[in-house]
Amino acid sequence: MKAPRVTLDQWRTLQAVVDCGGFAQAAEALHRSQSSVSYAMARLQEQLGVPLLRIDGRKAVLTEAGEVLLRRSRQLISQASQLEDLAHRMEQGWEAEVRLVVDAAYPNAKLIRALKAFMPQSQGCRVLLREEVLSGAEEVLTEGTADLAISGLDITGYLGTELGPVEFVAVAHVGHALHQLQRKLSVQDLQSQMQIVVRDSGQRSPRDSGWLGAEQRWTVGSLATSVKFVCSGLGFAWLPRHMIARELEEGVLRPLPLIQGGTRRPLFYLYTNKDKPLGPAARILSELIKTHDAEPLAHAG
Fold it and tell me: Are strands 97-103 and 126-132 parallel, antiparallel or unpaired?
């Protein structure tokens, strides 16, 4: 990469000349001699090969090219200042990034509210968000590659903060054969039909959570795909209510009238990396997740 010939100091000097209205005023504002300011501007224009200023009476006025380059230089100076501020915050212990792993069944709406609230407080800290299914979030946490984890599992060796439950509903398309029976449904009724199961993204000990031992089972890679399959009449599944609120409201999906177990409400937990103390940004995000989890969902997530 070609090294820039123009320094940040030269761009700052140009800004001062324009903002202050002249070389003498810029020199006073920068606590420099007028000759050094004049030299810096002459050198800047020589290096760029483009005239940036013209003298109108006693005032320095931007050329057309100067207006464009000054506008871009302001962005450059601002970014350089932000970079220096970030380095200072990192020196004080502020993280460059927070790694967050979330079970895909957790409501997006709650997560988005927490992240929106975090943005103005982030001070340049990035959030690396990773979605997993079932034991996938547990593995990421126990491997030490996450600072925060939201999971519906009770993870051995970790003390999680209890979040709210996520309601799963046994559903099928309104025209599905199970609804045509027009009676309460037993496990035997379900076992004779196609069940849509979401694959556990964990590698060490994947789980068949919710599988009833149906003779026919299709395993898909995401909850979103499971919703599409069930909406197409391909089978039944337990799906998070917040993901199918619209389909239930429109009558595309109907809850299955099970004798028992038609809904499940597993609690979700917020875990932290026990081998690494949380930095200030992760602590802020953690508190925001807990705060916004307690707020009710308005509609689908």
Answer: parallel
* pLDDT at res. 143: 92
Residues near 289 by beta carbon (within 8 Å), at least 6 away in sequence: 110, 111, 114, 148, 150, 163, 270
Return the SS3 of 249.
helix
Question: CA–CA separation, 272 vs 150, rounded Å?
Answer: 9
pLDDT of residue 301: 40
| Domain boundaries defined on the chain | 8-91, 101-159+271-290, 168-264
Could you tell me if 251 and 179 are in contact, meaning their C-beta atoms sit under 8 angstroms apart? no
CATH number for the region 168-264 comes to 3.40.190.290
Pseudo-torsion of CA 186, 192, 198, 200, nearest 10°?
Answer: 90
Alpha helices of 60-214 — where are they, by DSSP H? Answer: 64-91, 108-118, 135-142, 177-180, 187-191
* 3-class DSSP state of 99: strand
Which segment of 18-22, 91-95, 202-206, 259-263 scores lowest on mean pLDDT? 91-95
Residues 6+ apart with CB under 8 A from 167: 240, 241, 242, 263, 264, 265
* Whole-prediction pTM: 0.69
Q: Which of these, 99, 61, 109, lies nearest to 242 by C-alpha position?
A: 109
Pair of tokens at residue 216: 């026919």
From CA 231, how far away is CA 234, in angstroms rounded?
8
Residue with tokens 């809904």: 263
* Per-residue H/E/C for 23-76: HHHHHHHHCCCHHHHHHHHHHHHHHHCCCCEEEECCEEEECHHHHHHHHHHHHH
Q: Residue 149: phi, psi to the nearest 5?
A: -140, 135
**Rounded distance between C-alpha atoms, residue 63 and residue 65, angstroms:** 5
* 8-91: CATH architecture: Orthogonal Bundle (1.10)
Q: CA 139, 122, 88 angle in degrees (round to 5)?
A: 105
